[in-house]
Design brief:
Rossmann fold, 43% helix, 317 residues, 6-stranded parallel sheet, alpha/beta
């Protein structure tokens, strides 16, 4: 259950709070009555730079940090920028957690990534399988950089008794998502292709891979609630999955989105492009057991809301 009393008098720093997931986290913090929410802007604080991190914490003086900031994108962006994704995400997280510990921040919540799991993890993904292999190659640098925050949090807990926790959200989607074709993930990419095909009278869209991989998707507002429940109730070293527990193939997903958008043309699969990880679906029992989190938005309901938001946004551009 949500705990408003947990947040009473707390100063909360949400890195990435101006981003997609972060905007939902901030909304839910405000609904819980949190009066002091600090959102560092990239133009003012480069979290890759130590002096900027120190300046941020000195200015914000948070009791709790929700670390959502990331340099992230889809398969294409990961293939084009593996070094940047590794360096940026590692440096942001490591320096921020170390300074948070040194400056007495009470709790640090790291939001990791499903990309940290091994390429051939048994389905459903259980947190205990996190170290049983190397991540899928196209996003391994990003996944491993974020995974180091789990290692760091556990090490700081062991040596310093520092309260750092680590969450593993599955693929997120929803209104306010990134629809840039150069960096978007699969759901916004397919929605944009379908809507633009309808608008331009096109009878074919082309999607990457062969459609066989499976994915699990979590509505961003659901994920935000999971993050806050964990901040309120979870204080242990083990990582925790956040997901919906429902698996769908990319081919089925494309069919669902085309139906919801009203696109009736052909879907062509470009098999010269990579599929990514073969299957993704999480065991979400630990989150439910430890802090009572269960996803509450169905995929169809969430997709419909996302499509409606994109159409409204698309019209004003």
């Amino acid at each position: 259950m949500p705990s408003k009393s947990f947040w009473t008098g707390k100063r909360v720093c949400v890195t990435g709070g101006a981003g997609f997931l972060g905007s939902y986290v901030v909304d839910r913090l405000l609904k819980r009555g949190v009066e002091q929410v600090y959102i560092p802007r990239k133009a003012e604080y480069d979290l890759r730079q130590l002096e900027d991190v120190k300046r941020l914490l000195t200015h914000a003086r948070p009791n709790l940090i929700l670390h959502l900031a990331a340099n992230v994108g889809g398969i294409g962006a990961n293939r084009a920028h593996p070094a940047e994704f590794f360096y940026d995400n590692l440096m942001m997280g490591v320096q921020l957690m170390h300074q948070a510990y040194q400056m007495g921040v009470e709790k640090f919540v790291s939001v990791g990534t499903i990309c940290a799991y091994p390429k051939f993890t048994p389905v459903p993904f259980r947190e205990d399988d996190l170290w049983n292999g190397y991540p899928e190659e196209t996003n391994a640098p990003y996944g491993l950089a974020k995974k180091m925050l789990l290692v760091m949090g556990q090490a700081y807990r062991q040596q310093y008794d520092y309260n750092a926790i680590y969450l593993l959200p599955v693929n997120l989607y929803g209104p306010r998502d990134n629809f840039d074709p150069q960096s978007s993930h699969v759901i916004p990419a397919i929605i944009r292709k379908c809507v633009e095909a309808i608008d331009h009278g096109q009878d074919e869209i082309v999607l990457w891979g062969d459609g066989s991989p499976t994915r699990e998707f979590l509505y961003a507002d659901d994920a935000a609630e999971g993050i806050l429940l964990a901040a309120e109730h979870y204080n242990a070293p083990e990582p925790v999955n956040l997901g919906s527990g429902q698996e769908i193939s990319i081919r089925e997903l494309a069919g669902l989105i085309s139906n919801l958008t009203g696109y009736q043309g052909k879907i062509t699969w470009d098999t010269t492009k990579p599929n990514g990880q073969p299957r993704r679906c999480l065991d979400t029992s630990r989150a439910e057991r430890e802090f009572g989190f269960r996803a509450f938005t169905s995929l169809t309901e969430g997709l419909q809301a996302t499509i409606e938001w994109y159409r409204a946004f698309h019209k004003v551009r």
